[in-house]
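Chapter review: from sequence to fold.
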Amino acid sequence: MCRSTEIGIGPADTTKLPQDTETELSHRLTRQIKRTRAALWIEESLRRFWPVVSLLAVIWAALSFGLLSVIPPFTVKAVLFFSGLAALALFALGVRRFVVPTEDAATQRLDGAVPGRPIAALRDRQAVGKEDPVSQALWTKRLARMTALAANVRAARPNYGIRKKPPGRSA
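The token string follows.
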């Protein structure tokens, strides 16, 4: 379970958001991150298991249209046996190459979809000018702007396009 401290939502040490705002934002972002992670699961599943699904669809189509009834029974058994082996091998290959989407990947995907990357900005801490009132005012204003942007973040939808490898990933 993701809490505001786990996702790093919260202002710098000296500037605090109201507790209810931070908690509400944290819950909202946690839900959106979970939904984005589910979208990443769908993408990864499609990317890794489309060959076995395609093979099973071809086998089903052949059985449905009676194509196998025109060939000898021994050949039918051989075709089904080797098709089953191929489906099993493709499934095993998909499982072997499957990469479980992490919460960090979902957070990055969600954050990258919004200009200004508000989730990453809310994790930032004020580095200089902590005692300077003008600097603190600017920092507070920035946090308020990023909080407003983060409040409007929507979960990323799955990308159903199947690529050999997604950008930024080597496998």
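Two observations follow directly from the output. Residues 1-15 have pLDDT under 50 and may be disordered. The chain is about 65% helix and 0% strand.
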